[in-house]
């Protein structure tokens, strides 16, 4: 493993989460393996245990992973990787089962995480499962109702922080630096990303290597993890080539897009990120170095989409494809449509849009915004008589 800031290298050590020398972001080396995926037994994330860096004597599991890859009935060669079917309704479960197992191995009793909501719900569930106490730092008045309800239901301790997610994360990192008694579950924890890379293995087993993968980007851990998964398959000689990774951000929360478009080597943070898609309302993505690495290495790109495009994509997915996702998840599909409409993607390309979380996470946005976005989609009637008159 090595530090992306000071570039020092370290022996693989599961207790390291940030660089012990400079506090920077740590990257785990590629896991090279010649095991054919078809020889692996079981299902879900832990099926790929031999391909994960680290040692997991206690494998905490709620049946995460093995999510459906749904073929579009409209766009040829487009597939949706629907992560909403994970135990707590988002892809976070893939990483959380591994990170919480790591906490158990290291002997921790409590965990801490800053979250826009889904990480909180996932950390709460997996901590409960592992017998750990979870402390959750949440931006005050800014978390979707479904996610709060999940965290409370699982018995986590909630701490509201002013100043949005970015300040919650700064507080969580500070707490970890000063008090090592709480195990951090945010995505700067490189062991968590090991679990998230299994999405690529599943896609590969289903359809081989796609040409493009579209991923909504907040802190940028997931797009990196998915890239790392495909990269390891290629380096191990199990696959040929990797997909072009496209990160999609909301227009007023898009520091990665700005950096990629302007070829910047340093990220300029967005101070007050704004978007209806609360899961990607992030202005200071902690994993930005990894995100840019994944995008540039794969010859991918970064695109921003407006809230209106996000909501329209959410409604289209639900009404045309039958797939229900939260707004942040629809960003990947909105980004795909944008590039498609601009003629930048070949019709024959094999594309995967990662749909990161379930619609039930954020019912308020659906009722207040999503279903009103397309007037021809208005669908409630005032009386039964109105309905009968139509037929
Ligand atoms: C966490 C999350 C994201 C962003 O993932 P990052 O790894 O932070 O880039 C996107 N969509 C949903 C639904 C999420 O929960
Ligand atoms: Zn360092």
What binds here, in terms of ligands, is:
pyridoxal-5'-phosphate, zinc ion
Tally of helical segments: 13
Distance between the termini: 67 Å
What is the CATH topology classification name of the domain at 69-89 and 192-375? Rossmann fold
- The stretches of 5 or more residues where confidence is low (pLDDT under 50) are none
What's the order of the H and E elements? EEEEHEHEHEHEHHEHEHHEHHEHH
Shape: globular
Our Rg estimate from Cα atoms comes to 20 Å
Q: Roughly how much helix do the residues carry, as a percent range?
A: 25-40%
In the CATH hierarchy, what is the class of the domain at 69-89 and 192-375?
Alpha Beta
Strand runs, count? 12
Residue-averaged pLDDT: 95
Hey, roughly how much beta strand do the residues contain?
5-15%
- Structural class, please? alpha/beta
Please give the CATH architecture of the domain at 69-89 and 192-375: 3-Layer(aba) Sandwich
Q: Provide the spatial order of strands within the biggest beta sheet.
A: 3-4-12-9-10-11
- Main sheet, how many strands, which sense, barrel? 6 strands, mixed
Function: Catalyzes the gamma-elimination of phosphate from L-phosphohomoserine and the beta-addition of water to produce L-threonine.
GO molecular function, one term: pyridoxal phosphate binding
Catalytic activity: O-phospho-L-homoserine + H2O = L-threonine + phosphate
Family: Belongs to the threonine synthase family.
């Amino acid at each position: 493993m090595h530090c992306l800031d000071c570039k020092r290298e370290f022996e693989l050590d599961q207790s390291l989460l940030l660089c012990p020398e400079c506090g920077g972001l740590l990257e785990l080396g590629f896991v090279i393996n010649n095991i054919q995926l078809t020889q692996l037994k079981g299902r879900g994330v832990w099926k790929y245990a031999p391909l994960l860096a680290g040692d997991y004597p206690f494998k905490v599991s709620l049946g995460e992973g093995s999510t459906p890859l749904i073929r579009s009935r409209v766009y040829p060669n487009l597939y949706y990787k629907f992560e909403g079917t994970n135990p707590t309704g988002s892809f976070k479960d893939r990483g959380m089962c591994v990170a919480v197992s790591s906490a158990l191995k290291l002997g921790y009793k409590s965990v801490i995480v800053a979250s826009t909501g889904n990480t909180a719900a996932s950390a709460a569930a997996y901590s409960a499962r592992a017998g750990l106490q979870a402390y959750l730092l949440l931006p005050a008045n800014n978390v979707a109702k479904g996610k709060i309800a999940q965290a409370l239901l699982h018995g986590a301790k909630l701490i509201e922080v002013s100043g949005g997610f970015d300040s919650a994360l700064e507080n969580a990192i500070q707490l970890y630096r000063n008090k090592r008694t709480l195990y951090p579950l945010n995505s700067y924890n490189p062991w968590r990303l090991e679990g998230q890379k299994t999405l690529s293995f599943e896609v590969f087993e289903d359809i081989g290597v796609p040409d493009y993968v579209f991923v909504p980007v907040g802190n940028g851990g997931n797009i990196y993890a998915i890239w790392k998964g495909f990269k390891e398959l290629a380096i191990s000689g199990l696959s040929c080539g990797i997909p072009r990774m496209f990160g999609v951000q909301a227009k007023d929360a898009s520091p990665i897009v700005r950096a990629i478009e302007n070829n910047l080597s340093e990220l300029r943070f967005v101070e007050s990120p704004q978007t209806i898609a609360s899961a990607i309302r992030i202005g200071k993505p902690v994993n930005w170095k990894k995100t840019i690495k994944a995008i540039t290495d794969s010859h991918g790109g970064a695109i921003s989409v407006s809230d209106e495009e996000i909501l329209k994509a959410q409604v289209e997915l639900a009404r045309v494809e039958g797939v229900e996702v939260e707004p942040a998840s629809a960003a990947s599909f909105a980004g795909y449509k944008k590039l498609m409409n601009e003629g930048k993607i070949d019709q024959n390309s094999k594309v995967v849009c990662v749909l990161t979380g379930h619609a039930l996470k954020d019912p308020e946005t659906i009722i207040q915004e999503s279903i009103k976005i397309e007037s021809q989609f208005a669908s409630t009637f005032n009386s039964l008589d109105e309905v009968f008159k139509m037929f």
